[in-house]
Amino acid sequence: MRRQTSSASATGGSITPTASGLSGFFDQPFPSPIGQRPPRSSVPLNSAPPPPAGAVAADPRNGAGNGHAEPGAAAAHHLQALTALLGPLAAQTEEIHRLRAEVELWRGEWQRCDRERRRLEAIVNAKSAEPVGVVLIDGDGLIFLDEHLRKGFAGGQQAARALVASLPKLAGGVFALTSSAPSPRTDSTDDAPTHELGAVVVNVFVNKSGLGHALLRSGSIPSWGVYDAFWQGFSAAHELFSVTDVGHGKEATDAKVREHLRLYVSNRQCGTVFLGASHDNSYTSVLQSLETTTPLLSKLVILKGYTDLAHGLKQYAERAVTVPDLFRSTRLAEKVVTSPTNGAPPLANSTAAAAEVEEEAPSQEDEEAQATASDNESDNEVQVIEWETPGNAPLTPLTPQTPYRTSRGSYSGPSGRGGGIRSASARVSSLLATPGETVRNLKPRPCHTFYLSPWGCKNGDGCEYAHHYKLNEEQTEELARLAKEIICPYVRTKRCHFSEDECVYGHRCPRGERCTFGETCRFKDLPNGHGEADAAAAAARS
Fold first, then answer.
1. How confident is the model at residue 159 (pLDDT cuts 50, 70, 90)?
2. Are 385 and 482 in contact (CB under 8 A)?
3. Does the keyword DNA repair apply (predicted)?
């Protein structure tokens, strides 16, 4: 007998859900988390799909076989309901990914445009900023006039001011001539238009020692101290003026000028570049290259020194200008002066063939080496030298005011400071030496670097060793042999910049394996003092 149930239990009063109640539950629309408008379909977006055909709402109170739906059909119905719910969410997710990619694309474009904006602003600011004019001078060829050099520090400052004062009108004349509507060019700068330069940077690159010795030999400057003071005055004339000593080396000055020229021509803020190198054809190639890749012709002005423009630079002749009364118009010439004989007056200011200033200059270490070696020279280190005079006649004494020329073509005048030929009587006594007189009796002794090195003696008139002896070829070779018996002060520390053959002093014992001094030889402590390393290397090769 089946137990009869009631709608309310006797104890709890709970209500058992009916089939019609479940059907009403699934018919209720689920709330959408997206809040999107329902699709155009007539079926509500979140409504459950209709039950399968033939399906009857299940009643848990009824058992199987009473015409009610199976549990599998109910599960399928729920799955379809979930699919209908999640489908729009998946579509919205794809749309979000697409929009996010589009946002990243436009963000990248915005960043690129912002970078371009900043770049253009920098260009505008650079163009609107104060322009800069640059003067690059090859000091080995563009040489200041003697009247400035001889004034020392004051002459350097005067030369710097004269240079800067003349630049605006010189540049204005060049750019007016090369513009689309050129005006007639005149030699006078009084009527020339003025070109705005802004701040002016002046860089002079020079082989200071090489140029200084050439000026000393030509008689253009009285002493090395005056020459050095000139450059100090030029550099001190303004904070943007500088003098760079490039040292020895034929291309040292050219290389620095070329690289600075490339740098400034490519600089947008630099409006005018003055190139003081009208004497050298080596600048032609760099100018042609810059003319192709940069706005060179809108900036370039060439400063002339010598009257004749270098052949390779003649294509830029309309851009070449001359600063009045500032640079030499002729090349340096050696002053040839002979000592008087038989009462004849000395030949003063005779001009030899013009020579470029291209000799190599010594480094500071080399000069110190010469001074150290000369100071340490003893009577045992200097052997006898017999001085030869023409026709075995005694040397003719010179008066204190008489200039004379040495065997190296150097010009020597009255004695300067710091030793040297200290008085006329000392010079006369030394020049009266007989052919058989020895070196140790000559006071002062001959200067090694003056007679033997290609750059001469930097000390000039201030050197305490003699520059005035006239040596023939044999005597010069003998002096070189004696100097080789003095150890180079820098060979032990491997700081000598010259090879064994180039150095004035010795890097090894000149007697080599035939040295008879044994343990007392001054070259004994050197690693290869007697050629031991060379002998070992030769034995290994054999």
1. very high
2. yes
3. no
The contacts found for 251-255 with CB under 8 angstroms, 24 or more apart, are 251/282, 252/207, 253/138, 253/139, 253/140, 253/205, 253/206, 253/207, 254/138, 254/280, 254/282, 254/283
Contact 457, 447 (CB under 8 A): yes
Give the DSSP letter string of 204-218. EEE-HHHHHHHHHHH
Residues forming CATH 3.40.50 domain(s) in the chain = 132-322
Please indicate whether residue 393 or residue 332 has the higher confidence score (pLDDT): 332
Residue 333 host element (H or E)? strand 333-336
pLDDT of residue 419: 37
Instruction: Give burial (CB, 10 Å; 0-12/13-18/19+) of 473.
Output: exposed
Could you give the 3-state DSSP secondary structure of residue 197? coil
Amino acid at 409: G
Who contacts 293 (Cβ-Cβ below 8 Å, separation ≥6)?
none
CATH number of 132-322: 3.40.50
Query: Is residue 176 classed exposed, middle or buried when 0-12, 13-18 and 19+ CB atoms within 10 A define those classes?
Result: middle
Distances (CA, A) of 181 to 25, 185, 296, 467, 533: 95, 12, 19, 60, 74
Q: What is the b/e burial string over 196-210, where b = at least 16 CB atoms within 10 angstroms of the residue's CB?
A: ebeebbbbbbbbbbb
Residue 146 · residue 227 · CB < 8 Å: no
Beta strands 199-206; 404-405: pairing state? unpaired
How many whole angstroms separate alpha carbon 289 and alpha carbon 285? 6
Q: Helices H, strands E: what count in the chain?
A: 13, 10
Decide: 142 and 278 in contact? Cβ < 8 Å: yes
pLDDT of residue 164: 93
Average pLDDT taken over every residue of the chain: 71
Largest Cα–Cα separation, the chain: 172
DSSP annotation of 446 reads B
> What's residue 426's pLDDT?
38
Are the C-beta atoms of 202 and 135 separated by less than 8 Å? yes
* Sign of the alpha-carbon torsion through 110, 116, 120, 123: positive
Q: Which of 509, 542, 541 is nearest to 526 (CA)?
A: 509
Percentage of residues in the chain with pLDDT exceeding 70?
63
- Residues 449 and 452: their CA atoms lie apart, in Å, by 5
Classify 14 as helix, strand or coil. coil
* Pairing label, strands 270-276, 333-336: unpaired
Higher pLDDT pick, 281 / 405: 281
